[in-house]
Amino acid sequence: MFWYNGKLIDGETLELAIDDPGLLYGATVFSTLRVYQSLDNPLTSWTGHCDRIRSSLLDLGWQQPDWERSRYGAETLTKHFPILRITIFPDGREWITGRFLPVDLTQRQKYGIGALLIEPPITPPPGVIERSLPQHKTGNYLAAWLAMNKAKKFEAQEAILVDELGNWLETSTGNLWGWRDGKWWTPPIDGRILPGIMRSQLIHWLVSQNQPVGEVAFDAEWVKGLSAVAYSNSVVEVVPIHTVITSESQITYDPTHSSLEQLRRLHQSDRSHKG
Question: Is 105-274 in CATH node 3.40.640.10?
Answer without folding.
Answer: no
